[in-house]
């Protein structure tokens, strides 16, 4: 079972020290959630107008690409877009510093991907089962294959009314992978490259990515698994930050509004124990290389 592992740290720039850092990394790589209860993210008074789902239009989240500075998923324009871009850039930078300070082991090997702002209430939101993040799942991106790299995410609850964000977290990746592995089919040779060629994906979808997408879908579609598999509920209070390898930790967001998130990609080779990665676990279960 995934558990919550607490680290006392009140700054985005603090170094926990080698011993504490190694412990935190071990907890994270083992598939736990690392909770920093004393670490909130400060928003500014002039940013208050951004705290409404109205900035989303029909999107689920607003996104920010730190490489280009480009915003997505928002109807904000003009001064509001500039304000939103600045807020997300600031969070993105803070999250990158945090990961750099917390995990010297990964230094120089972490790629900063997109950030998101999530101003919509989760409870009661209507979506297709595949997009329904209130169902337990592991993360896998249909259009941007990870190629086996780990998905490390930093989340901060920035709810201005002090409301928690409620998650469920579930069983270990290995247990879940064993349950679903017999039903996960290896893709046809060449199909991953074809998807990139026709523009469905940004790079060829590896066998690993194909299996992870199926796992994501199988988990969400399985009502018995959703109800009966081992799981616990956690409330992440407003003004707290947490980190998880969300390709590994089974999770579901049940309620809450206003969250910032930054995604990082970490090569399996950078891990202290690569054998714990979903890539190596699926390779053992399938008996072949997957990237
Ligand atoms: C998810 O990654 O499934 C959603 C997390 C969240 O929005 O709290
Ligand atoms: Fe998710």
What does this structure look like?
This protein has 291 residues and is an alpha+beta fold. It contains 7 helices and 11 strands. The chain has helices at 18-29, 78-102, 173-180, 191-197, 207-221, 223-228, 278-286; strands spanning 4-6, 33-36, 62-65, 70-72, 111-118, 150-157, 165-170, 231-236, 241-245, 251-255, 259-266. Strands 1-2-9-6-11-5-3-4 form an 8-stranded mixed beta sheet, covered by helices on one side. The longest helix has 25 residues, at 78-102. The relative contact order is 0.22. The model has no long low-confidence stretch (mean pLDDT 97).
Order of helices and strands: EHEEEHEEEHHHHEEEEH
Secondary structure tally, helices: 7
Which word captures the global form? globular
Radius of gyration: 18 Å
Name the strands of the widest sheet in spatial order: 1-2-9-6-11-5-3-4
Look at the structure and give the mean pLDDT.
97
Q: Care to count the β-strands? A: 11
Instruction: Describe the sheet with the most strands.
Output: 8 strands, mixed
- Class per helix and strand makeup: alpha+beta
Low-confidence stretches: none
- Could you tell me how far the N terminus lies from the C terminus, measured between alpha carbons in angstroms? 27 Å
Q: How large is the share of residues in beta strands?
A: 15-25%
DSSP helix fraction = 25-40%
Unique ligands: succinic acid, fe (iii) ion
Topology:
Layout lengths: L3 E3 L11 H12 L3 E4 L25 E4 L4 E3 L5 H25 L8 E8 L31 E8 L7 E6 L2 H8 L10 H7 L9 H15 L1 H6 L2 E6 L4 E5 L5 E5 L3 E8 L11 H9 L5
Parallel strand pairs: 1-2
Antiparallel strand pairs: 2-9, 3-4, 3-5, 5-11, 6-9, 6-11, 7-8, 7-10
């Amino acid at each position: 079972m995934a558990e919550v592992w607490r680290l006392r740290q009140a700054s985005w720039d603090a170094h926990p020290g080698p011993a504490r850092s190694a412990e935190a990394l071990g907890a994270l790589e083992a598939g736990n959630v690392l909770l920093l209860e004393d670490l909130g993210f400060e928003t500014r008074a002039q940013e208050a107008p951004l705290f409404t789902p109205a900035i989303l239009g029909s999107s689920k989240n607003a996104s920010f690409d730190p490489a280009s500075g480009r915003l997505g998923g928002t109807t904000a324009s003009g001064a509001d877009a500039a304000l939103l871009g600045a807020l997300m850039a600031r969070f993105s930078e803070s999250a990158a510093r945090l990961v750099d300070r917390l995990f010297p082991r990964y230094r120089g090997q972490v790629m900063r991907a997109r950030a998101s702002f999530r101003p919509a209430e989760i409870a009661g939101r209507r979506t297709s089962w595949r997009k329904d993040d209130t169902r337990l799942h592991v993360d896998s991106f249909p259009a941007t294959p990870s190629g086996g790299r780990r998905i490390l995410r930093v989340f901060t609850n920035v709810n201005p009314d002090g409301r928690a964000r409620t998650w469920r977290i579930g069983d270990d990746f290995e247990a879940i992978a064993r349950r679903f592995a017999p039903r996960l089919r290896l893709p046809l040779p060449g199909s991953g490259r074809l998807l990139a060629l026709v523009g469905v994906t940004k790079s060829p979808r590896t066998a690993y990515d194909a299996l992870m997408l199926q796992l994501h879908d199988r988990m969400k579609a399985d009502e018995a698994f959703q109800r009966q598999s081992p799981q616990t509920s956690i409330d992440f209070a407003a003004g707290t930050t947490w980190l998880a390898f969300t390709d590994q930790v089974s999770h579901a967001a049940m309620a809450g509004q206003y969250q910032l998130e930054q995604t990082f990609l970490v090569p399996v080779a950078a891990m202290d124990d690569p054998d714990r990665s979903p890539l190596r676990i699926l390779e053992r279960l399938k008996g072949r290389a997957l990237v």
